[in-house]
Design goal:
- Chain A: It is found in: Cell membrane.
- Chain A: GO terms for molecular function: ATP binding; ATP hydrolysis activity.
- Chain A: This is Sugar ABC transporter ATP-binding protein.
- The complex is a heterodimer of chains A (500) and B (336).
- With 500 residues, chain A is an alpha/beta fold.
- Chain A contains 19 helices and 23 strands.
- In chain A, the strands form 5 sheets. A 6-stranded mixed β-sheet of chain A has the order 6-9-10-3-11-12, sandwiched between helices. In chain A, strands 18-20-21-15-22-23 form a 6-stranded mixed β-sheet, with helices on both faces.
- In chain A, helix 6 links the parallel strand 9 and strand 10.
- The model of chain A has no long low-confidence stretch (mean pLDDT 90).
- Chain B is mainly alpha-helical and 336 residues long.
- Chain B has a single domain, classed as ABC transporter involved in vitamin B12 uptake, BtuC, CATH 1.10.3470.
- Chain B is 73% helix and 3% strand.
- The longest helix of chain B has 26 residues.
- The chains are: A alpha/beta (500), B mainly alpha (336).
- Chains A and B meet through strand 2, helix 10, helix 11, helix 12 and helix 14 of A and helix 1, strand 1, helix 2, helix 10 and helix 11 of B.
- Strand 19 of chain A pairs parallel with strand 1 of chain B, so a sheet runs across the interface.
- Bound molecules: adenosine-5'-triphosphate (ATP) and magnesium ion (MG).
- Adenosine-5'-triphosphate binds next to helix 1 and helix 15 of chain A.
Chain lengths: 500, 336
């Protein structure tokens, strides 16, 4: 690692409508360094990166690149200065091919027309540079997996000569197996002398990848550490300001299990074949599988969001076939979707409107007032450890993790008997994650039947009473809670069938 | 916000920020009220009688149909659709009323009931075609506009026949008499405030919250159990019924002609946009949309006082609608 300082940020302050969220942050990045940034939801990590990328102008403070003071008033200016940023939501055009996406807005021109050959040649060279061979310049982006799209985003930043690359929660959208792909790519860039700022809530990754770690809390830097000289425990302590035990909540006892609440038999859809399972009151059933194995499809079919071709769904012993999610909500189901921006939230509406959206569809306000146990918006915020300014704040201004807590609140308010979680802690910080795990277990103890989809195997193993594993639209097998990661991966990749 | 507030979970800084929040809310949706006030003051400077009760009430009375139409347009816009058919629907109301009433006062109330039903049915048709049959509402309601125009022409043979009764006209013209200081409180103004209040309540109720959430994110709303097609159809029905009400008022104001409603759909949409309603749905308040209508009407008054001819009004309106949408887009970009 070279010791040359590439980027120096000093005393960065930033306020939104009079509220300061960054209180003078210092950060430096060396060439060829991977510098991780960790901190709780809403600590200001993304905001700090946006001041670097020219999305928000800092109110105070200086940014120096190669010792030169810079100030960006537009993302394009930051790009030109060598800052590349990959957001969690990609900005690629699905109907264009890889080369077109990489050169969008600056296509090489010859004799007045776009020089496709040159574009494709240069794209091929860029892909080769990072060792990507699974797709080419002409592949339409629509065909690419999330992980591959991410590679395109990074290569695009690289083609703009980015020497500083910001990755904001890059693995949140990836499945377990795809993470290695990203790591290889990031390490490759590191060798090329690129400085990488890496934001993540997954400490395992941070330790595997980074050279240094900066902990941010409440808009200020707590400490910058050398990765080799610290450990997970110290880091968590710095992040949340208290000791976390790192254990999952205790599983329920066998005789705590109640009646079967959800029973699925022979479920088939466009993507699923003959899936059968049941979930009892008080039980947490984990659903494992690779990206595209049909986990989310099960949830959507049960919930009435997608049509069912064949099979039956029984709720509390009664056969149901929901034609609209509303019927599912009425029958006591809740569904925490994996993509909160596209399917979980109405972003321009207030926290309170989002929290009440589901309950409003099934219970008139008169009845709500007389129903015991319904929480107020304020109570929901406390239970989920939400951090926000007030119930009227628009959810688009919340940090990613806090948005997830709003989605969770929405379903808690309907007092469901069956809850389906699709990636419940995606983008959630370590402290709040433990809080959400406790909450899920507590819901189960209170008699809720929980079906939990997660790509994070430690979470799935630690939380589930039983684990179902999907493989290519078929239920590949069932494992007891506490099964090992290799056991799950064997079923998920289909290699167990071969062995058997 | 101080550090302690951020650190505590739940809602931080709620109390201290209330004042600031009010100010920022005013800054985002309140621009229209400031603009309206400025116009009122300016008109008063040009023509001091404007601020007297009589002329001011006359201005409100004149504005009432557009304010009511703007409320209807708001419901449709905020759910993510357009309703371009309200102008020709207003014309249908007046023409049908004249032909069926033929100056006979006893027919007034049954005919009014019929008009409201026609408004609801046309709204329902717009909604059904746009949601269940998935024809984009822009096309559906543009088609409806043409259909209604053609129907009026066919039915009247070019020149409307019949006449309105006096009691029909009195709704748009008369009011409660003998009130001190203002002398007469026009029915139309009363109706305007009643519809305004009802619209505000409706938007605060479960229906309104579901409607705006649908316009913001249809998929999330559906997965939360909102019957998105149904709330959108209802928005069209409201728009149709409010167009009927506006038509009844306009029938009283002017004569019977096949031109009464011409261009009103654009006036109503301009009013909403001026009030900060974002085309595409999910953003804006109904009060601001109605204030937008009052502003637009004040602007026309101001143009008159400046001696700018009526023909230029269209041009001005065109500039406003582009300017207002551009301003909204700029503000949203800034907030990201
Ligand atoms: N455009 C904005 N307007 C108002 N407040 C904002 C805006 N953007 C961010 N904030 C606030 O700034 C704070 C920091 O948010 P930020 O997104 O930087 O957090 P984060 O550290 O990235 O969290 P997470 O881990 O959840 O992604 C939050 O309280 C958030 O509500
Ligand atoms: Mg973030």
């Amino acid at each position: 690692m070279s010791e040359q300082t590439l980027l120096q940020m000093e005393g960065i302050r930033k306020s939104f409508v009079g509220v300061e969220v960054l209180h003078g942050v210092d950060l430096d990045l060396r060439a060829g360094e991977i510098h991780a940034i960790v901190g709780e939801n809403g600590a200001g990590k993304s905001t700090l990166m946006k001041t670097l990328a020219g999305v928000h102008a800092p109110d105070e403070g200086t940014i120096r690149i190669d010792g030169q003071e810079v100030s960006f008033h537009h993302p394009a200016a930051a790009q030109a200065a060598g800052v590349g940023i990959v957001y969690q939501e990609f900005n690629l055009l699905p109907d264009r091919n890889v080369a077109e996406n990489i050169f969008i807005g600056r296509e090489p021109v010859r004799a007045g027309i776009v020089d496709r050959r040159k574009m494709e040649r240069e794209t091929a060279a860029l892909l080769e540079e990072v060792g990507e061979a699974s797709f080419g310049p002409r592949t339409p982006v629509r065909w690419l997996s999330v992980a591959q799209q991410q590679v395109v985003e990074i290569v695009k930043a690289r083609s703009l000569n980015a020497r500083i690359l910001v990755l904001d929660e890059p693995t949140a959208a990836l499945a377990e197996g795809e993470v290695e792909l990203l790591f290889t790519l990031v390490r490759r860039l590191q060798e090329l002398g690129v400085g990488v700022l890496y934001i993540s809530h997954r400490l395992r990754e941070v330790f595997a990848l980074s050279d240094r770690i900066t902990v941010i809390k409440d808009g200020g830097v707590v400490k910058t550490l050398n990765t080799a000289e610290t450990n997970q425990r110290e880091l968590v302590n710095l992040m949340v300001g208290r000791e976390l035990d790192g254990y999952f909540p205790e599983r329920g006892a066998k005789d705590d299990l109640g009646d079967v609440r959800l029973k699925v038999s022979g479920l088939s859809t466009a993507l699923l074949r003959d899936v059968s399972f049941e979930v009892r009151a008080g039980e947490i059933v984990g659903l494992a599988g690779l990206q595209g194995s049909g986990r989310t499809e099960i949830a959507r079919a049960v919930f009435g969001a997608d049509p069912i071709a064949d099979g039956t769904v029984e709720i509390d012993g009664k056969a149901k076939r929901f034609k609209h999610p509303r019927q599912a909500v009425k029958a006591g189901l809740g569904f925490i979707t994996e993509d909160r921006k596209a399917e979980g939230l109405a972003l321009a509406q207030s926290i309170s409107d989002n929290m009440l959206l589901a309950v409003r569809t099934v219970m008139p306000s008169r009845k709500r007032r007389s129903t015991p146990g319904l929480m107020t918006v304020k109570e929901l915020a406390e239970v989920t450890e939400l951090r926000a300014r007030g119930p009227e704040q628009e959810v688009r201004f919340l940090s990613g993790g806090n948005q997830q807590k709003v989605v969770l609140s929405k379903w808690l308010e309907t007092q469901p008997g069956i809850l389906i979680f699709d990636e419940p802690t995606r983008g959630i910080d370590v402290g709040a994650k433990a809080g959400i795990h406790d909450l899920i277990r507590k819901l189960a103890k209170d008699g809720v039947a929980v079906l939990m989809i997660s790509s994070e195997l430690p979470e799935l193993i630690g939380m589930s009473d039983r684990i179902l594993v999907m493989h290519e639209g078929v239920l590949a097998g069932e494992l007891p809670g506490g099964a090992s990661e290799p056991q799950i991966m064997e079923l998920a990749t289909g290699s167990a069938e071969v062995a058997a | 916000m101080s550090t302690e507030n951020v650190a505590a979970s739940g809602f931080g800084a709620d109390e201290q920020d209330r004042g600031r929040r009010f100010l920022s809310a005013l800054a985002s949706t309140g621009t229209i009220f400031i603009l309206l006030l400025i116009l009122w003051v300016w008109i008063t400077i040009l023509n001091p009688t404007f601020a007297e009760p009589g002329p001011f009430l006359a201005y409100l009375k004149r504005s009432a149909p557009l304010v009511i139409l703007a409320a209807g347009a708001y419901f449709v816009l905020v759910s993510g659709n357009f309703d371009l058919s309200v102008g020709s629907l207003v014309t249908v109301m007046v023409v049908v009323a004249a032909r069926l009433i033929e100056g006979e006062p006893s027919r007034t109330w049954p005919v009014i009931l019929l008009l409201l039903v026609i408004g609801a049915v046309v709204g329902f048709a717009n909604g059904f075609i746009s949601t269940i049959l998935r024809v984009p509402s822009f096309i559906t309601t543009l088609g409806m506009l043409l259909i209604l125009n053609g129907a009026v022409f066919w039915w009247t043979g070019g020149a409307p026949r019949g006449a309105l009764s006096d009691n029909f006209r009195s709704i748009g013209r008369q009011g409660i008499e003998g009130i001190p200081w203002i002398e007469q409180l026009p029915w139309s103004v009363l109706l305007m405030f009643a519809i305004g209040a009802a619209s505000v309540l409706l938007m605060r109720a479960d229906f309104g919250r579901q409607l705006i959430a649908t316009g913001d994110n249809e998929r999330a709303a559906r997965l939360s159990g909102v019957r998105v097609d149904r709330v959108r159809i209802l928005a069209f029905v409201l728009s149709g019924v409010l167009a009927a009400v506006a038509g009844i008022l306009l029938g009283g104001f002017g004569g019977v002609s096949a031109q009464v409603g011409k261009g009103l759909e654009f006036d109503a949409i301009t009013a909403c946009v001026l009030g900060g309603v974002v085309l595409g749905g999910g953003r804006g308040s109904v009060v601001a949309a109605m204030a937008g209508a009052l502003t637009l009407e004040a602007l026309f008054t101001w143009l008159n006082l400046q001696g700018i001819s009526g023909a230029l009004e269209d041009t001005v309106q065109g500039v406003i609608i582009i300017g207002a949408v551009g301003f909204a887009a700029y503000r949203l970009r800034g907030a990201r």
